[in-house]
Amino acid sequence: MQYKQLGKTDLMVSRICFGCWQLSPRFWGDVPLEPWRKALHKAVDLGVNFVDTAAAYGEGYSETCLGDALAAGKLRDKFYLATKVYWNFQTAERYPDTSYEYVIQECEDSLRRMKTDCIDLYQIHAWDPLTRPDEVAAALGKLKKEGKIRWVGVSNMNVEQMSLYREVFDVESFQPHYNLLAREIEQRELPYCLQHRIGVIPYSPLYRGLLTGKYTRDHAFSDSRATYDLYVGKAFPRMLDALDETKKIAADLGLTMAQLAIRWILTQPAITSAIVGIKTPEHIESIVPAADDILPIPIWHRVANILDTARKEALAMKG
Ligand SMILES: NC(=O)c1ccc[n+]([C@@H]2O[C@H](COP(=O)([O-])OP(=O)(O)OC[C@H]3O[C@@H](n4cnc5c(N)ncnc54)[C@H](OP(=O)(O)O)[C@@H]3O)[C@@H](O)[C@H]2O)c1
User: Fold this and answer.
1) Could you tell me what percentage of the chain is helix, strand and coil, using 3-state DSSP and rounding each to the nearest 5?
2) Is residue 57 among the annotated active site residues?
């Protein structure tokens, strides 16, 4: 496993991060826990030292399962633990809330659920339009002072929002949606993060599984993916045709398509680690080799061009 410094922090994180959103039944259905726990242990064996979750995943369920597994396996000190705050899910309809009181309360709840006394990376999940940055800063400052969080990151933000936060507290990492089919952040956010040495840890690096190229044309998704643009109608087979083409490029490099998609992300100099959503030991075991190397530059562009064209055509078919 290769490791990289997360921004300016003292965290040397593995280039593959173990993503725990899969333990959110609302989005992913009923994911069996035993294989998931085994995957967490397998991750340790393979040198993965970075795990990402959020208070909102399953309204505390993901953090609780993670805390139980870390405690039962005595694994807490094997991982840098990253979680997020933003959604207030105390009411029937959840809403963004990074108010002083909520951040303090939710952090206490996350610590309790994860059975730990310190979170290594505490992330603001998205931009909250109703809370002033200095109020967020006050809450984070208190938590840092009390030793409950070590470093702070943000997710799902643009340059302006990151800049506003950076005026009042240190932002060490950025967690954006980034993969071969979603490249918007290459224009502004990635250069900004490079310039300011902010670590970048993309989510959905496999476009929630599509970029593995493992699904057949008649695959029926039983989770929320059944409604995603590129997973439905004529768009889906168009994407699979393109993935058949890129799979051949992967094979020539001795890689699976999933490994190629992850290596493509890790080739970007701004990127620290890719957060992969894991359900089984096979998922983590087969993805780790992606981090052994980076891609030759012409291949990086070739794969991106093929999938970019396919995405545009697929979306047009949908319309
Ligand atoms: N900050 C945010 O707003 C945000 C949003 C989304 C996610 N995240 C974080 O990012 C993580 C990853 O994102 P994601 O779950 O959306 O998407 P992802 O990593 O792109 O896709 C996960 C899916 O890919 C498949 N997969 C994973 N490893 C595989 C392997 N080695 N071989 C074959 N298939 C494999 C599985 O699909 P099957 O289930 O079909 O097997 C899995 O459910 C999450 O767990 C979470 O920690 C953050």
Assistant:
1) 50, 15, 35
2) yes
Distance CA 46, CA 41 (A): 9
Is 303 in contact with 260 (CB distance < 8 Å)?
Answer: yes
* Among candidate residues 266, 260, 191, the one with its CA nearest the CA of residue 275: 266
Ligand 1 geometric centre to CA of 283 (Å): 10
Entry pTM: 0.97
Listed residue (78, 69, 21, 46) closest to 203, CA to CA:
21
| Of 57, 192, 203, 231, catalytic | 57
Q: Which residues are 153's β-sheet partners?
A: 123, 173
**Which atom of ligand 1 has the smallest separation from the CA of 22?**
45
Positive or negative torsion for Cα 48, 146, 73, 153: negative
pLDDT, tens digit (0-9, with 9 covering 90-100), for 165-206:
999 999 999 999 999 999 999 999 999 999 999 999 999 999
List pLDDT tens digits, range 51-90: 999 999 999 999 999 999 999 999 999 999 999 999 999 8
Q: What is the mean pLDDT of the chain?
A: 96
Residue type, 237: P
Which residue, 202, 284, 174, 204, is CA-closest to 21?
204
67 alpha carbon to ligand 1 midpoint, in Å? 20
What's the 269 CA to ligand 1 centre distance in angstroms? Answer: 22
Task: Please say if the pLDDT value at position 32 is more than 90.
Answer: yes
pLDDT at 222 over 90: no
Q: Is the CB of 258 under 6 A from ligand 1?
A: yes
pLDDT of res. 317:
86
φ, ψ for residue 155 (rounded to 5)?
A: -140, 155
Residue whose tokens read 């993805």: 287
Closest listed residue to residue 284, CA positions, set 51, 6, 10, 4: 51
Domains and their CATH numbers in the chain: 3-209+265-294 (3.20.20.100)
* Residue 319: per-residue pLDDT: 59
